[in-house]
Amino acid sequence: MFTPKYPPQDTAPVPTTPAPYVPTAAPIASAPASNRSTVQLTPGSMLTLAAGGGALVLVLGAVLVSMLLAVAITAASVAVCAVTVRSILKSDRR
After folding, report:
1. What's the pLDDT band for 94 if we cut at 50, 70, 90?
2. pLDDT per residue as tens digits for the range 41-63
3. What is the distance in angstroms between the CA of the first residue and the CA of the last residue of the chain?
4. What does 9-58 look like in DSSP terms, one character per residue?
5. Closest CA to 48 of 60, 56, 36
6. How many Cβ atoms are within 10 Å of 87's Cβ, its own excluded?
7. Exposure string (b/e) for 42-72, b if CB count within 10 Å is 16 or more?
């Protein structure tokens, strides 16, 4: 019941050898030197980059502030628990 069931041996795929590589065309000549492939920044693209950077700073700031707030809330709750436990232990000694 719990033993694996394997397919019969004759259904296994037959390994094939890949066909040899035969080049079909000559390599493409490189572009002339006059065509530059550098990125040119326009005022519109710089504005887009600035807006994207500003959004990134805002999101990163929100994440960091929320993490700091989580740590502060955790520290405050641990302090309240410590004071409560200390008070309980002090009242039991009397």
Report:
1. low
2. 777 777 787 788 888 899 999 99
3. 68
4. GGGSPPP-PPPPP---SPPPPPPPTTS-------HHHHHHHHHHHHHHHH
5. 56
6. 10
7. eeeeeeeeeeeeeeeeeeeeeeeeeeeeeee
